[in-house]
Structure of Cupin domain-containing protein:
Amino acid sequence: MQRTAWLLMATASLTLGCEGLQSPAGLDHVHEVAAVTPEQVAWSPAPEVVPEGAELAVLEGDPAEAEPFVVRMRMPDGYNFPAHSHPHAERVTVIEGTMHLAMGHRLDRDAAEAYPTGSYVAIPTDEPHQVWAEEQLVIQVTGVGPLEVDYVDPADDPRTGQTAAVGGGCPLCQLAAASEPSR
Protein backbone atom coordinates (compact mmCIF):
# COMPACT_ATOMS: atom_id res chain seq x y z
CA MET A 1 0.00 0.00 0.00
CA GLN A 2 2.81 2.41 0.88
CA ARG A 3 4.55 1.53 -2.39
CA THR A 4 1.35 2.30 -4.39
CA ALA A 5 0.95 5.65 -2.63
CA TRP A 6 4.61 6.49 -3.31
CA LEU A 7 4.23 5.57 -7.02
CA LEU A 8 1.13 7.74 -7.33
CA MET A 9 2.90 10.68 -5.69
CA ALA A 10 5.99 10.20 -7.87
CA THR A 11 3.88 9.99 -11.03
CA ALA A 12 1.94 13.12 -10.07
CA SER A 13 5.19 14.99 -9.33
CA LEU A 14 6.70 13.98 -12.66
CA THR A 15 3.54 14.89 -14.55
CA LEU A 16 3.29 18.29 -12.93
CA GLY A 17 7.04 18.89 -13.11
CA CYS A 18 7.26 18.08 -16.84
CA GLU A 19 4.92 20.87 -17.86
CA GLY A 20 7.70 22.50 -19.90
CA LEU A 21 8.15 19.34 -21.93
CA GLN A 22 4.64 19.37 -23.33
CA SER A 23 3.91 20.71 -26.80
CA PRO A 24 3.21 24.45 -26.94
CA ALA A 25 -0.41 25.35 -27.61
CA GLY A 26 -1.39 24.78 -31.20
CA LEU A 27 1.35 22.31 -32.14
CA ASP A 28 -1.01 19.35 -31.83
CA HIS A 29 -3.19 20.66 -34.66
CA VAL A 30 -2.74 17.69 -37.02
CA HIS A 31 -6.13 16.10 -37.59
CA GLU A 32 -5.30 13.90 -40.56
CA VAL A 33 -2.23 12.37 -42.12
CA ALA A 34 -0.34 14.73 -44.42
CA ALA A 35 2.50 13.30 -46.47
CA VAL A 36 4.74 14.74 -49.16
CA THR A 37 7.24 12.60 -51.05
CA PRO A 38 10.30 14.24 -52.63
CA GLU A 39 8.63 14.06 -56.05
CA GLN A 40 5.57 15.92 -54.70
CA VAL A 41 7.46 18.90 -53.26
CA ALA A 42 6.04 21.90 -55.15
CA TRP A 43 8.95 24.32 -55.59
CA SER A 44 8.23 27.95 -56.47
CA PRO A 45 10.48 30.98 -56.67
CA ALA A 46 10.91 32.30 -53.13
CA PRO A 47 8.91 35.44 -52.37
CA GLU A 48 10.54 38.84 -52.76
CA VAL A 49 11.25 39.04 -49.02
CA VAL A 50 14.02 36.48 -49.71
CA PRO A 51 17.04 37.37 -51.89
CA GLU A 52 16.59 36.32 -55.52
CA GLY A 53 17.68 32.83 -56.52
CA ALA A 54 16.08 30.71 -53.79
CA GLU A 55 13.06 28.46 -54.15
CA LEU A 56 10.48 27.68 -51.48
CA ALA A 57 7.93 24.92 -50.91
CA VAL A 58 5.25 24.96 -48.21
CA LEU A 59 4.81 21.43 -46.87
CA GLU A 60 2.37 22.14 -44.05
CA GLY A 61 0.51 25.04 -42.50
CA ASP A 62 0.45 28.66 -43.54
CA PRO A 63 3.59 30.65 -42.63
CA ALA A 64 1.51 33.85 -42.68
CA GLU A 65 -0.83 32.67 -39.92
CA ALA A 66 -0.31 32.18 -36.16
CA GLU A 67 0.02 28.42 -36.60
CA PRO A 68 2.76 25.82 -37.01
CA PHE A 69 4.29 25.53 -40.47
CA VAL A 70 6.90 23.50 -42.32
CA VAL A 71 8.65 24.88 -45.40
CA ARG A 72 11.63 23.84 -47.49
CA MET A 73 14.03 26.31 -49.04
CA ARG A 74 16.36 25.41 -51.90
CA MET A 75 19.39 27.62 -52.60
CA PRO A 76 22.06 27.36 -55.31
CA ASP A 77 25.76 27.01 -54.56
CA GLY A 78 27.15 30.27 -53.15
CA TYR A 79 23.72 31.69 -52.27
CA ASN A 80 23.76 34.19 -49.38
CA PHE A 81 20.82 35.07 -47.11
CA PRO A 82 22.07 38.26 -45.37
CA ALA A 83 22.00 38.75 -41.62
CA HIS A 84 18.44 38.63 -40.32
CA SER A 85 16.30 37.45 -37.41
CA HIS A 86 12.77 36.25 -36.78
CA PRO A 87 10.36 37.13 -33.94
CA HIS A 88 9.74 33.39 -33.42
CA ALA A 89 12.19 30.52 -33.01
CA GLU A 90 12.95 28.44 -36.06
CA ARG A 91 14.10 24.85 -36.31
CA VAL A 92 16.25 24.02 -39.32
CA THR A 93 17.14 20.60 -40.70
CA VAL A 94 19.69 20.35 -43.51
CA ILE A 95 18.18 18.04 -46.13
CA GLU A 96 20.91 18.40 -48.78
CA GLY A 97 24.24 20.24 -49.02
CA THR A 98 26.15 22.22 -46.42
CA MET A 99 24.65 25.21 -44.60
CA HIS A 100 27.06 27.81 -43.27
CA LEU A 101 25.60 29.70 -40.31
CA ALA A 102 27.00 32.78 -38.59
CA MET A 103 25.24 33.76 -35.36
CA GLY A 104 25.03 36.80 -33.12
CA HIS A 105 24.94 40.57 -33.26
CA ARG A 106 28.48 40.78 -34.62
CA LEU A 107 28.37 38.44 -37.56
CA ASP A 108 31.71 36.94 -38.52
CA ARG A 109 31.78 34.64 -41.54
CA ASP A 110 35.14 33.28 -40.39
CA ALA A 111 33.56 32.13 -37.11
CA ALA A 112 30.59 30.48 -38.84
CA GLU A 113 29.75 26.82 -38.37
CA ALA A 114 29.28 24.45 -41.29
CA TYR A 115 26.32 22.07 -40.99
CA PRO A 116 26.31 19.14 -43.46
CA THR A 117 23.35 17.07 -44.65
CA GLY A 118 21.40 15.65 -41.71
CA SER A 119 22.27 18.47 -39.30
CA TYR A 120 19.69 20.18 -37.09
CA VAL A 121 19.88 23.71 -35.66
CA ALA A 122 17.37 25.47 -33.39
CA ILE A 123 17.64 29.26 -33.68
CA PRO A 124 16.17 31.27 -30.80
CA THR A 125 13.71 34.13 -31.17
CA ASP A 126 15.25 37.42 -32.38
CA GLU A 127 18.72 35.86 -32.79
CA PRO A 128 20.53 37.48 -35.76
CA HIS A 129 21.99 34.96 -38.18
CA GLN A 130 23.34 34.74 -41.72
CA VAL A 131 23.12 31.66 -43.94
CA TRP A 132 25.00 30.77 -47.10
CA ALA A 133 25.13 27.68 -49.24
CA GLU A 134 28.04 25.47 -50.14
CA GLU A 135 26.84 23.47 -53.14
CA GLN A 136 23.08 23.27 -53.65
CA LEU A 137 21.45 23.57 -50.24
CA VAL A 138 18.00 22.38 -49.20
CA ILE A 139 16.83 23.14 -45.66
CA GLN A 140 13.58 22.39 -43.91
CA VAL A 141 12.33 25.08 -41.54
CA THR A 142 9.74 24.35 -38.88
CA GLY A 143 8.23 27.14 -36.83
CA VAL A 144 5.14 28.94 -35.68
CA GLY A 145 3.89 31.85 -37.77
CA PRO A 146 3.45 34.43 -38.70
CA LEU A 147 6.88 34.16 -40.29
CA GLU A 148 8.68 37.50 -40.44
CA VAL A 149 12.16 38.40 -41.63
CA ASP A 150 13.88 41.33 -39.92
CA TYR A 151 17.12 42.25 -41.68
CA VAL A 152 19.99 43.46 -39.47
CA ASP A 153 20.84 45.99 -42.19
CA PRO A 154 17.61 47.32 -43.74
CA ALA A 155 19.53 47.88 -46.98
CA ASP A 156 19.71 44.07 -47.32
CA ASP A 157 15.90 43.78 -47.56
CA PRO A 158 15.40 42.92 -51.24
CA ARG A 159 11.96 44.58 -51.32
CA THR A 160 12.00 47.98 -49.74
CA GLY A 161 14.78 48.23 -47.20
CA GLN A 162 12.22 47.77 -44.40
CA THR A 163 11.33 44.97 -42.02
CA ALA A 164 9.75 42.27 -44.11
CA ALA A 165 6.57 41.09 -42.43
CA VAL A 166 4.86 38.03 -43.78
CA GLY A 167 1.20 39.00 -43.40
CA GLY A 168 -1.97 39.69 -45.39
CA GLY A 169 -1.29 40.08 -49.09
CA CYS A 170 2.37 39.18 -48.70
CA PRO A 171 4.31 36.95 -51.12
CA LEU A 172 4.59 34.03 -48.66
CA CYS A 173 0.83 34.16 -48.11
CA GLN A 174 0.28 33.87 -51.85
CA LEU A 175 2.82 31.05 -52.05
CA ALA A 176 1.15 29.19 -49.17
CA ALA A 177 -2.23 29.48 -50.88
CA ALA A 178 -0.81 28.21 -54.17
CA SER A 179 1.17 25.35 -52.58
CA GLU A 180 -1.54 23.19 -51.04
CA PRO A 181 0.31 20.23 -49.46
CA SER A 182 -0.47 16.79 -50.83
CA ARG A 183 -2.38 14.48 -48.51
User: Anything to note?
Assistant: Residues 37-178 form a domain with the Jelly Rolls fold (CATH 2.60.120.10). The beta strands are 44-45, 55-60, 68-75, 80-85, 90-103, 113-115, 120-123, 129-144, 148-151, 164-165. The two ends are 51 Å apart (CA to CA).
